[in-house]
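Workshop exercise sheet. Pairs work together: one partner reads the sequence aloud, the other fills in the structure field after running the prediction. Swap roles for the next sheet.
Pair: D.N. / O.F.
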Amino acid sequence: MKLFGHLPDSLFQPLAGPNRHVHARLLLHLYNRVFAARILETPTKEDILGHITLALSEAGVDSPDQLFEEGEAGTENDQAHSLAYRRLRDIGWLIEEREKWRVLIEMQPDAFMLLGTIADFHNSRLRVAGAVVEVKSNLEAAANDPASLAQGLSNAHETAVRFARSMRRILVGMHAIEDQILGNPNAGAILRTFFEDFVNGLLIADYKQLKTSNNPYRYRRQISAMASDLFHNMDWRAAIARTYIEQGVVPPGTSVLTAEERVVSELEKIRQVFEDVDSFMGSH
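Structure field:
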């Protein structure tokens, strides 16, 4: 899909200036809450202004001074939501259409497609973060009660594999977007800034902040260490293997030895996935 073939360079100006992260989140808010959520209904100007007000509040913007670009001067009557609206309208993100006494708002079609792609990656990131917590919870359950909750290991393994695939899919997709942007001969430096400061900053930054206290990825070492400890716990491995057979996690007739080989394989895969996160992200 050619995302940038018809997008004017001026469209990216809000995403290349000092307030680019505010505008980025504003645009994603409008996409997710308004334009992608209403298939048959075109929002009014009042709807859009209300959502802009909400998005700016969530971003901590309560004054138009926080939105002025370098060298830009405002007026005494400026309000943050109206200033943001005019900027998006004048640059071309939003298109006004008049229907009798109402002003209806559409998003520029190609820009809508672009935001849809970015929003998909953003939402995938959130799902992937949740998968980390799911792996941890399932592995802990199996560790604490192998006789009853052995299925937790199998669930943790499946989620860890899904986590690894999702991370790779997200990053491959990001590189595809980067190639489209930087390969556009008409895009120039402003699109390079767009990728590096907005797309990269919004979608990849969380992966690189794995040591922060609130980030789900902080559990990666705990998960890896737990999988390693369980790997070396022979009694626990045997207990899980027997429960796998009893609960039908493995095919009927499977021997304890074969079931334990599966347990070992699942633990090793979980450990490998979460030990590889740092090196994988460092190479992208």
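Discussion prompt: Strands lie at 94-99, 102-107. What would you look at next?
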